[in-house]
Design a protein that fits this description.
- The protein has one domain.
- The relative contact order is 0.16.
- The protein is rod-shaped.
- It is mainly α and 144 residues long.
Length: 144
């Protein structure tokens, strides 16, 4: 039994609805994973790549900011003019003077995550509706 299945009181295994499964995977694990599991790998890959690019951009911004702050702090240490206020001022300037694209990366990542979760829920809901439609018996040929 997978973690996506539940067992009711009588011991019968019930699979989680596809809408919930897709939304949980895309919302809690990684954007796009719900689409891949629901059979939409192309859309899932787009969300996965977008989220990975957003996370990579955030990590890049953090690393470059730390590097700039450390460089300026080390030059202050070498010159002998170190003070807590100066280091805080340098840190604030470095973080605020990033490029607009780098500063908007967290917002874009959040929107990607949100859109992926909503899309997976909608796709899963459509698949659930198809499975729950009554199956009509095949038409029999007319008797001749």
């Amino acid at each position: 039994m997978s973690w996506l299945e539940t067992v009711n009181e009588s011991g019968i295994t019930n699979s989680m609805k596809k809408a919930a499964k897709g939304a949980l995977l895309s919302g809690l694990v990684y954007p796009g994973l719900g689409q891949v599991v629901l059979g939409r790998p192309g859309v899932g890959l787009v969300f996965i790549l977008a989220a990975t690019a957003g996370i990579g951009t955030i990590i890049y911004k953090i690393m470059t900011s730390i590097s700039l702050i450390m460089d300026q702090a080390m030059s202050m240490v070498e010159s002998g003019g170190v003070s807590y206020d100066k280091i805080v001022h340098i840190s604030i300037n470095v973080v605020q003077n990033g490029s607009p694209l780098l500063n908007s990366a967290p917002t874009l990542l959040f929107l990607c995550w949100l859109c992926s979760t909503i899309h997976a829920y909608i796709v899963g809901g459509r698949l659930d509706q198809r499975e729950n439609q009554p199956q009509l018996p095949p038409k029999l040929p007319p008797h001749v």
